[in-house]
Each structure stands twice: as structure tokens, then as C-alpha cells.
Amino acid sequence: MVELNQPLPPPVPSAELRRRLAERRSAPAQALIAPGPSDAELEEILTLGARTPDHGKLFPWRFVVLGPQSRARIAEQLAVLAEARDKPAKDQAVLAKLTAAPVTILVISAPVPNAKPVWEQQLSAGAVCMNLEHAAGALGYSASWITDWYSYDPQGAALFGVQEGETIAGFIHIGALSEPALERPRPDLSLKVTRLP
Ligand SMILES: Cc1cc2nc3c(=O)[nH]c(=O)nc-3n(C[C@H](O)[C@H](O)[C@H](O)COP(=O)(O)O)c2cc1C
After folding, report:
1. How far out from the chain centre does Cα 107 lie?
2. Any residues with CB less than 8 A from the CB of 131 and at least 6 apart, and which?
């Protein structure tokens, strides 16, 4: 760990990192199985994940680490909430994604009032989610970034301790992959990139 305000090494080309970035894939949450990260590995994943750009050093997010017991208990409560929704069977079925992985990091966007624009603070929480996925990958685990209906249902989100003014950025489920990931469509960059001289 480099001391505060001490120079950091400059980036150097890394064929390995480029390959990993080019080939990275999320896991289907239901395909995540044991072994998951150890406590020490989880600490490293959180530390690396938190090393994320944020405007104003606000750290406008927080984590809830969810083990299997808490997720199973909350999933039971969510199943009851799902009964009152438009598509109860579908909303209950997706709860399998919440409980499958060995461990889950819930990333909560917690914007600091009257500071930098809220949108920027929320983007920082998204960057944390992506960085957690990269960190999990660097330690040899797969990850899945899921929100699902309960992230947007106030009663559902409250079961995870989400408070007034906070939003769920994502559940980052982490574990080993039970089957190989398959490539998926990627954007046609010619439709996405404008180049100006
Ligand atoms: C904010 C956010 C929320 C997402 N929520 C879900 C979800 O609820 N269910 C789901 O199946 N995929 C969800 N995804 C998609 C997956 O995380 C993932 O992006 C997709 O499976 C392909 O990922 P890959 O390009 O990393 O392989 C979400 C993605 C983002 C960025």
C-alpha cells in the first residue's frame, strides 16, 4: 500500500490485463457456486472495489456483505411481498438469483446532500460495482451484478437496510462458475463512437 500523497507507479502495458478485460464476462447468478472468497479475499475485493473515482472524495456509497443465512431469510420475506405484485410467480422465481451465490456484496448509493451532483455520486456507485466485479475476477472468482424488482420496491429495499435517500446500485454476487460462460453480443462501436479531429 502506497502512503498518502506518495507517487504511485505509472501504468505499464499488460498483455494479461488486456486479455482479461477483453474476455471478461458476468456470470448468471444461478451459476455461482462454492467455493466463494475467504474472509481475507473478500476484504481484498472490497478494498480494490472501493478504489473507484468519485468527485469530491465523498465515497457516496456503502456496502452490505450478505451471507447465505441473511439472504435466505430476506428472500422469504420478499416472497411474501411478491404475492401482492402484478406477476407474483415471476417475481418469486427471480429470488433464486438472490440466494444462489456463496456471498453477495450489496452496493448502496448514498449521495451526500448538497455536495457534488447526485448523478455523479450515483455514477461513482456504479463504478464501484464494476470494480468489484473486476476485483473478484482478479482473485479468480466470477461475479454477477443484479438489481431485480426488490431493488426498486421500497419495502423490499428496506429489508436490506436501505434508508431514505439511498438507492441500490446492485447486488454483486460472487462465487465459482458451475459452467463456462458463453460470449454474448457486444456493441457495434461504429454506431457508438463519434470521432472528432
Ligand atoms: C445496473 C445493472 C443492473 C442489472 N440487473 C440485472 C438483473 O436484475 N437481472 C439480470 O439478469 N441481469 C442484470 N444485469 C445484467 C448483468 O449484470 C450483466 O450485465 C449481463 O448479464 C451481461 O454482463 P457481461 O457483459 O458482464 O457479461 C444488470 C446490469 C446492470 C449494469
Report:
1. 6
2. 48, 49, 50, 51, 52
Q: Is 103 in the pocket of ligand 1 (CB under 6 A)?
A: no
The CATH number of 28-178 is 3.40.109.10
DSSP string, 66-95: E-HHHHHHHHHHHHHHHHTSSSHHHHHHTH
Residue nearest to atom 14 of ligand 1 (CA): 146
Taking CA atoms only, the protein residue closest to ligand 1 atom 29 is 145
Return the pLDDT at 1. Answer: 72
Helix H or strand E encompassing 175: strand 167-177
Cα separation, 30 vs 172, whole angstroms: 13
Assign 102 a pLDDT band (cuts: 50, 70, 90): very high
For residues 162, 74, 52 and 137, what is the CA-based torsion angle, rounded to 10 degrees? -170
Q: Where are the domains of the chain?
A: 28-178
CB atoms < 10 A from the CB of 157, how many?
18
Containing 96, the helix (H) or strand (E) segment is: helix 95-99
Residue 152, pLDDT above cutoff 90: yes
